[in-house]
Amino acid sequence: MRHLTALRSLRLSHIARTERSLGLRLVHTPSSTRIPNFAFAFDIDGVLLRASKPIPGAAESLSLLKEQGIPFILLTNGGGKHETERVAEISEKLNVTLDPTHIVQSHSPFAELVKGVDETSALEHKRILVAGGDGDSCRLVAERYGFKNVVTPGDIFMANPSIWPFSKNYSDYYKSFARPLPPVSGSQDPTMGLKIDAIFVFNDPRDWALDTQVIMDLLLSSNGVMGTLSEKNGRPDLPNHGYQQDGQPPLYFSNPDLWWAAAYHLPRLGQGGFREALEGVWAATTGGPGKGIGLKKTVIGKPYQPTYEFAERQLLRNRARTFMHATDLPPLQRVYMVGDNPESDIRGANSYRSEVGSSWQSILVRTGVYNGGEPVWTPRTIADDVQRAVEWALKSSKWT
Ligand SMILES: [Mg+2]
What Pfam families does this protein map onto (predicted)? Predict the structure, then answer.
């Protein structure tokens, strides 16, 4: 929870640096001089796009909001690319000009950990492990956020293939992007091995087995040094039976979704599936919840509070920039979250407690995963599509 608190407690002093790392620089000039006291957050898949095709009315809705100077962001559990690339793709598909200020991806809040809350928590110059994504695309994203020392499981495998011999079948793949490392495991002195200071699952792992092995090695290590095994593991006199009590790196996941909708006719396992698998291995190794042993980790992404906090801070920045010449900026009172997934979009908006006192109102649309009936999380309203949702919200906020 310490790390969750770290994410939560990051405030304005880090915003400018985080903005730079996310490529956020552009200024919008609305045609209207009225200042809305509300804003929008849109999920992407099933709301604006479906199977990469625009949903009718989506482009018109975003254009209208831009024209009216009503702030909005796209809030997605997707990722794997830098915000600049992601937003360029969406702009092209919808034919609406968007810039990186308009998007929050699952891993965007990790950018705040580059500088941390203070010098000791800053990860900028620490060595971090980044798992997930194609090749080392997520390493490149992390580097653009400002992390200076990023290692992938593929680097570790190529430096010492005996760490997980079954990945030798994928050597050509790993060879295509792996970077050289100092010795991974100290051959004479185990404490001289590679030290990792934090573990980030940025996106869905492509090689669950290698990633599971490397993450388990680090969680069981002493001080995050590869090739070591903590002597505290399994000691009943210590908290959590000694597990994760010996300076092991904190573990972060960016996206809790167990399933996601892909081209196949049935949903596919998402990053949440990988996490469950890892938790299963962890429980089998340590004794797990039956023995009172947990896996300490931080999970962000919708529906969790830190992601909504980050999104709201971004909306506030966009709003301040849009109305930079206003003498008196009224507080942001309402944010309409438009989503197709009751479990993430609606649950997240309903559960969110704003730091600035805004009220998040959830609107469920029928163009994605929700297929009628009583939703598991009750939205403020249900709309046929995003255009109807925006119309409802504008009316509700008496914006004509
Ligand atoms: Mg969706």
Answer: Hydrolase_6 (PF13344), Hydrolase_like (PF13242)
Give the position of tokens 């110059």. 125
Strands (E), 284-377: 298-299, 334-339, 359-365
* Fold assignment, 2-106+302-396: Rossmann fold (3.40.50)
Ligand 1 centroid vs 349 CA: distance in angstroms?
14
Quote the tokens at residue 120. 């000791």
Taking the centre of ligand 1 as the mean of its atom positions, its distance from the CA of residue 149, in whole angstroms, is 33
Nearest alpha carbon to residue 382 among 44, 55, 72, 47: 47
Q: Rounded distance, CA 157 to CA 154, Å?
A: 5
CATH fold match for the domains 2-106+302-396 and 115-299: yes
Residue type, 302: K
For residue 282, the Cα-to-chain-centroid distance in whole angstroms is 23
pLDDT of residue 267: 85
Domain positions in the chain = 2-106+302-396, 115-299
Alpha helices in the chain (DSSP H): 2-8, 15-21, 58-68, 83-94, 137-145, 153-159, 171-175, 208-220, 271-286, 305-322, 347-351, 386-396
Q: pLDDT by residue (tens digit) across 361-384?
A: 999 999 998 989 999 999 999 999
Dihedral Cα 306, 308, 310, 315, nearest 10 deg: -170
**How many A from CA of 344 to the centre of ligand 1?**
8
Question: Is 80 exceeded by the pLDDT of residue 222?
Answer: yes
Residues by chain with Cβ below 5 Å of ion ligand 1: 43, 45-46, 340-341, 368
Q: 300 C-alpha to center of ligand 1: Å?
A: 16
342 CA to centre of ligand 1 in angstroms? 9
Could you tell me the distance, in angstroms and rounded to a whole number, from the CA of residue 31 to the centre of ligand 1? 31
All residues at 6 or more sequence positions from 47 whose CB lies less than 8 Å from its CB, including other chains = 55, 58, 338, 339, 340, 365, 367, 368, 386
- What is the CA(46)–ligand 1 centre distance, in A? 5
Ligand 1 centre to CA of 379 (Å) is 15
CA of 316 to the centre of ligand 1 (A): 23
pLDDT digits (tens, 9 = 90+) for 305-321: 999 999 999 999 999 99
φ, ψ dihedrals at 250, nearest 5°: -65, 150
d(CA 255, CA 242): 28
174 — alpha (psi -120 to 50), left (phi > 0) or beta?
alpha
Domain 115-299 falls in which CATH fold? Rossmann fold (3.40.50)
